[in-house]
Design brief:
It contains five helices and nine strands, in the order βαββββββββαααα. By secondary structure, the protein is of the alpha+beta class. Bound molecules: zinc ion.
Length: 176
C-alpha cells in the first residue's frame, strides 16, 4: 500500500496558493505535469458554502464535456488559529459516500476516481490488486502506456498516471 502510487491533493498547497482567500464560487484549477511539462491531469474546483457556516470544495477531474469526468464535493474543517486566521483540513467523505469517514486530513488521494484519505484508501485492497495488474500491463508495454496517457477517457489517463508514478516510486527506492 504505497501512497506514492496515487495523485495527492494537499490542503496546505491550496492554502499557499491562496485558494482560501478567493471568493466563493470562483473557478480555480490545479494540474500535474510530467517531467517535460506536459499536463497529465487537471482538476477544476471552486469553494462552496460560507466562511462562517462551513466550506466545501467542489472538485472536477477532467473536462465536464469529457466522457467519464469525475466530480466530488469535499467538506472542509475550519480550525481557528490561536493568533488569528484559519487553518483548513479536508474532511474525508469515505469510500462509498454513505458512511462518512469524517477524518480530518491534510492530504487526499485520488483512488479509483474518488478523493479519499489514506485510511479509506487502504480499505480498497481488492480493487488495488486488480488495479495493479492493469498498471503492470501498461508498464510492460510503453506503447500502451503512451496511448493510455493520451486517451480521451479520464479513467484510462488516471490508470496510466498511476502506473507511471508507481514506476517512479520504485525507481526512487532503488536509488536509495
Ligand atoms: Zn477516510
Amino acid at each position: 500500500m504505497l501512497v506514492e502510487d496515487f495523485l495527492a491533493l494537499d490542503v496546505r498547497d491550496l492554502a499557499l496558493a491562496g485558494v482560501f482567500r478567493t471568493s466563493i464560487g470562483k473557478p480555480c484549477s490545479c494540474s500535474w505535469n510530467d517531467a517535460d511539462g506536459v499536463e497529465l491531469v487537471k482538476i477544476n474546483f471552486y469553494l462552496e458554502g460560507a466562511f462562517e457556516s462551513g466550506l466545501s470544495l467542489h472538485i472536477t477531474v477532467g473536462q465536464v464535456a469529457e466522457a467519464g469526468f469525475l466530480s466530488q464535493r469535499i467538506q472542509l474543517a475550519t480550525l481557528q488559529r490561536p493568533y488569528g486566521g484559519n487553518k483548513f483540513l479536508f474532511l474525508c467523505s469515505g469510500k462509498n459516500g454513505q458512511s462518512a469517514c469524517d477524518k480530518r486530513v491534510r492530504k487526499l488521494y485520488l483512488i479509483e476516481g474518488r478523493w479519499l484519505c489514506r485510511n479509506c484508501g487502504n480499505l480498497t485492497y481488492q480493487v488495488r490488486r486488480q488495479h495493479d495488474s492493469r498498471k503492470d500491463r501498461l508498464l510492460r508495454n510503453p506503447d500502451l502506456l503512451t496511448a493510455a496517457l493520451r486517451s480521451d477517457d479520464i479513467r484510462q489517463r488516471l490508470l496510466a498516471i498511476g502506473a507511471w508514478t508507481q514506476a517512479l516510486a520504485r525507481l526512487n527506492r532503488v536509488r536509495q
